[in-house]
Amino acid sequence: MTSTFTIRKRTPLEIQAVCALHGTGLLRMAVGATWEVPRPDGHIEVVIRDHNEYVLAGELAALVEWLKPADPPGVRDPLASIGNALVERFS
Fold it and tell me: Which burial class, exposed, middle or buried, applies to 89 when counting CB atoms under 10 A from its CB (0-12, 13-18, 19+)?
C-alpha cells in the first residue's frame, strides 16, 4: 500500500476543482481525482494531484467543459495559454 507521504512526494501539486457530475467518470480515468464531495448544486468538489501546473493543465484541458479549477489559481494561467494556442491554431 502506498503511503500518503509517498503520493505527495511523487505528485506535490494539489489542486481543488469543481466538476459537473456527468464529467466525474472521465475525470477519474484521466487524472485519478480523489476526495469527491457532492454539492447541493449538483457539482462535485474534487482534489487532483500532479507534478506541476503545466503538466496538470495539459491533462485538464480536455476536461474544461466539465471542470473548473479553484485553488491554487496557478493552474489557470497554463490552461489559458493552452486555450489561446488552440484558438490560434484552429481558427
Answer: exposed
Q: Judge if pTM exceeds 0.90.
A: no
Q: How many angstroms separate the first and last alpha carbons of the chain? A: 48
pLDDT in tens, 23-45: 888 888 888 767 778 899 989 99
**Count of beta carbons in the 10 Å neighbourhood of residue 80:** 11
Whole-number Å distance between alpha carbons of 46 and 58: 17
Q: What is the pLDDT of residues 4-26, one digit of tens each?
A: 544 455 678 888 889 998 888 88
Q: How many residues does the chain have?
A: 91
Which grid cell sits at 44? Answer: 462535485
